[in-house]
């Protein structure tokens, strides 16, 4: 009898930075559809179902002719895309965080060839963390370490119940570890957030900080930790007594960790919030073991940073215009470049700036030729001049991805890619060949 | 002083990187030679002659004054690493004006974009308008930014100005910034820099200051909780010898760095 449904085990989920690697996926071989996902969270599971062949998926390359997308051959689409990139004086290559490392590496190769600007989504997400780490270093660890040892967990400006749903049960809260044999009961969870989030609701202690005043609060905690008596009675909505109590809790724990998210990196102060958080963690190591880990969003944004870093020396916001990589967020970061209208063509890989960037920058993005390597219909691809349909990494093709703690894991292929779609890696490879040909190399 | 005049003759679509426009590069060269000096435009290497009309003459660096006219708001890195002479810019100017400068003087008759006077090692930068963010700051990842020299900004400076400034008493180097008003995080990670603000300052001035002096003649929107009031003073003595008269409240900090600190923040009483 022919097998109808195939079960694939130990699948790595290509959704968030937690990168759970214990999913079981059932695929109907006849229809090439995922029919069941076990162990995954709501969002991760949804990604498998949404990836199933449907009207939302691109299956053939498209080119915009007279304002309409028309289906064309791969050769024609690649030729047109290469033409746009070669003719551009200041092209931007952006995205890369929702694809695998091999494709990211190709992206760097293409950017260098074109003397282009190269950026990944960290520039609107955890880029500030990277800036702060450059300034003051960071004490990081892998999630396994946290699972086995941590007894005090702080979630600062992050809400894993919704953003990283299995983080709590796999690494940081309910899970039993080698030294935390009683799981949740062995851990003290502290949440700092302006909102009483669902994570805050299951925490042992919730600290309500005023919006955009995280910096002042951390500074006060650090000063109290140094033994200073402060002039003020209240900081950012938190009383000095509470701050003193918090400092005692942190000093007396065995192994603490700070998980921080967009609440720190994208509220006022940005990288300076992370800067002072890192210093707090470093100073706490005078008393006990303390670490911090950024809660990365896209499943492979950490990988994008790693790949860019080992190829160019910089994690994001890179400019190849002089033939060698230069780095300066603010000057070469995508949003700033687009705001100043300094880009005259863009290649967007596995990302949707059209729905995430500020309106003024999106306007400038759509003004110039735009190429999208994209599996789905998105606001960005709808305005693209060339759409190159991609297979989804981690579902329709293999690859490597980095978890939020920078541990590389192998993504698996669970079913065949629909239509004529190719992997991001293959598309970029073809594009590189064509660009080489056009540049006469 | 020998004058060399440049006038931009094209409207720029992309930023022009003009790190070669310095008295050091122009001194002793004929107009024809100056026109051949390379600049960078988008991905191309171009020449000064392609973008500027050039006239005048020069002999030695200290005696060279470059006067630039036309819209320079998208021209970056003018005066990079200059060691002497003068540059006068009769327009708004793009990013990184006078970065790594170690001597001489730059005057901008207009606004300057971000990173004006970044990593300044000496000399004087005068901006008769507003300046962007990171005035006199360290570049990404550097622990020592502005080490000497003076920056004067008539208007406002942006966020994180004088980031990681570093003074040296034995070498008598006192990096100093004078400005009209300032945005948040002024003088963050200060290690001896001096800042004098005529007007108001936004939040977090002097954050993580190890030592140094920040004098604010206007108001501060919110003082950091890690600063402590010391008392009132009638004048402030700056390390470069200057004395500022007026009633100020003296704060010490930032106490996140040390329990006892030499960092001082003076705010008008």
Which SSEs are present, and which pair or pack?
The complex is a heterodimer of chains A (441) and B (269).
Chain A (H helix, E strand, L loop, with lengths): L4 E7 L11 E6 L4 E6 L3 H10 L10 E4 L2 E4 L2 H14 L3 E5 L5 H14 L2 E4 L6 H10 L6 H7 L2 E5 L3 H4 L3 H6 L15 E6 L4 H4 L3 E4 L5 H12 L8 E2 L2 E2 H13 L2 E6 L1 H4 L5 H14 L4 E6 L6 H12 L5 E2 L6 E2 L6 H6 L5 E5 L3 H4 L2 H9 L2 E4 L5 H4 L3 E3 L10 E4 L5 E4 L12 H16 L2
Helix pairs in contact in A: 2-18, 3-13, 3-18, 4-12, 9-10, 9-12
Chain B lengths: L1 E7 L7 E2 L5 H4 L4 H5 L2 E4 L2 E4 H4 E5 L7 E6 L5 E2 L9 E4 L15 E4 L15 E4 L22 E8 L18 E7 L8 E7 L13 E6 L11 E10 L5 E10 L9 E7 L1
Parallel strand pairs in B: 1-6, 2-7, 6-8, 8-9, 9-10, 10-11, 11-12, 12-13, 13-14, 14-17
Antiparallel strand pairs in B: 1-5, 2-3, 3-4, 15-16, 16-17
State the secondary-structure class of chain A. Answer: alpha/beta
Q: How are the strands ordered across the major sheet of chain B?
A: 5-1-6-8-9-10-11-12-13-14-17-16-15
First-to-last CA distance of chain A: 54 Å
Question: Which structural class do the helices and strands of chain B define?
Answer: mainly beta
**The CATH class of the largest domain in chain A:** Alpha Beta
Mean pLDDT of chain A: 95
- Biggest sheet features of chain B: 13 strands, mixed
Q: Largest chain-chain contact?
A: A-B, 36 and 39 residues
Order of helices and strands of chain B: EEHHEEHEEEEEEEEEEEEE
Strand content of chain A: 15-25%
Question: Strand percentage of chain B, roughly?
Answer: 35-45%
Q: End-to-end distance of chain B, in Å?
A: 45 Å
Shape of chain A: globular
């Amino acid at each position: 009898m022919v097998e109808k449904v195939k079960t694939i085990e130990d699948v790595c989920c290509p959704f968030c930075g937690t990168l759970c690697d214990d999913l079981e996926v059932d695929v109907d071989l006849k229809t090439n559809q995922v029919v069941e996902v076990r162990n995954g969270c709501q969002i991760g599971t949804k990604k498998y179902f949404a990836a199933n062949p449907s009207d939302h998926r691109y299956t053939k390359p498209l080119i915009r002719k007279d304002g309409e997308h028309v289906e064309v051959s791969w050769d024609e689409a690649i030729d047109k895309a290469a033409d746009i990139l070669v003719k551009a004086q200041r092209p931007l290559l952006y995205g890369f965080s929702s694809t695998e490392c091999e494709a990211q590496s190709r992206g760097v190769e293409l950017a260098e060839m074109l003397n282009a600007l190269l950026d990944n989504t960290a520039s609107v997400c955890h880029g500030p963390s990277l800036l702060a780490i450059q300034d003051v270093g960071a004490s990081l660890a892998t999630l396994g370490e946290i699972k086995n040892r941590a007894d005090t967990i702080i979630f600062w400006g992050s809400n894993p119940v919704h953003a990283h749903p299995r983080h709590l049960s796999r690494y940081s809260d309910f899970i039993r570890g080698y030294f935390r044999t009683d799981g949740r009961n062995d851990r003290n969870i502290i949440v700092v957030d302006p909102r009483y989030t669902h994570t805050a609701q299951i925490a042992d202690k919730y600290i309500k900080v005023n919006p955009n005043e995280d910096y002042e609060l951390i500074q006060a905690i650090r000063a109290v930790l140094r033994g200073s008596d402060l002039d003020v009675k209240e900081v950012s909505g938190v009383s000095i007594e509470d701050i003193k109590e918090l400092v005692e809790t942190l000093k007396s724990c065995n192994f603490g960790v700070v998980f921080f998210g967009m609440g720190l990196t994208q509220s006022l102060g940005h990288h300076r919030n992370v800067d002072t958080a890192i210093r707090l963690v470093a100073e706490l190591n005078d008393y006990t073991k303390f670490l911090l880990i950024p809660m990365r969003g896209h499943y492979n944004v950490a990988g994008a940073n790693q790949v860019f870093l080992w190829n160019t020396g910089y994690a994001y916001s890179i400019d190849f215009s002089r033939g060698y990589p230069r780095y300066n967020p603010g000057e070469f970061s995508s949003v700033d470049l687009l705001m100043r209208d300094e880009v005259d063509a863009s290649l967007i890989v596995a990302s949707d700036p059209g729905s995430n960037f500020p309106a003024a920058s999106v306007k400038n993005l759509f003004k110039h030729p735009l190429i999208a390597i994209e599996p789905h219909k998105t606001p960005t691809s709808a305005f693209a001049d060339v759409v190159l349909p991609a297979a989804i990494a981690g579902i329709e093709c293999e690859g490597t991805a980095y978890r939020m703690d920078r541990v590389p894991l192998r993504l698996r292929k669970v079913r065949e890619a629909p239509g004529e779609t190719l992997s991001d890696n293959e598309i970029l490879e073809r594009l590189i060949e064509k660009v080489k040909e056009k540049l006469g190399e | 002083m020998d004058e060399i005049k440049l006038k931009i003759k094209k409207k720029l679509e992309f930023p022009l990187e003009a790190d070669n426009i310095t008295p050091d590069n122009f001194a002793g060269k004929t107009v024809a030679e100056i026109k051949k000096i390379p600049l960078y435009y988008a991905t191309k290497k171009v020449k000064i002659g392609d973008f500027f009309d050039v006239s005048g003459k020069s002999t030695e660096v200290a005696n060279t004054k470059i006067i630039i006219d036309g819209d320079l708001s998208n021209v970056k890195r003018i005066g990079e690493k200059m060691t002497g002479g003068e540059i006068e810019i009769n327009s708004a100017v793009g990013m990184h004006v006078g970065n790594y400068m170690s001597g001489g003087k730059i005057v901008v008759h207009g606004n300057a974009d971000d990173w004006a006077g970044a990593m300044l090692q000496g000399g004087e930068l005068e901006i008769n308008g507003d300046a962007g963010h990171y005035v006199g700051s360290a570049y990404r990842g550097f622990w020592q930014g502005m080490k000497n020299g003076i920056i004067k900004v008539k208007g406002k400076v942006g966020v994180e100005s004088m980031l990681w400034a570093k003074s040296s008493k034995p070498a008598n180097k006192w990096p100093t910034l004078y400005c009209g008003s300032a945005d948040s995080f002024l003088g963050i990670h200060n290690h001896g820099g001096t800042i004098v603000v005529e007007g108001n300052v936004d939040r977090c001035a002097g954050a993580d200051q190890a030592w140094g002096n920040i004098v604010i003649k206007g108001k501060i929107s919110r003082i950091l909780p890690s600063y402590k009031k010391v008392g009132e003073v009638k004048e402030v003595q700056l390390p470069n010898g200057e004395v500022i008269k007026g009633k100020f409240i003296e704060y010490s900090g930032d106490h996140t760095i040390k329990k006892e600190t030499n960092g001082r923040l003076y705010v008008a009483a």
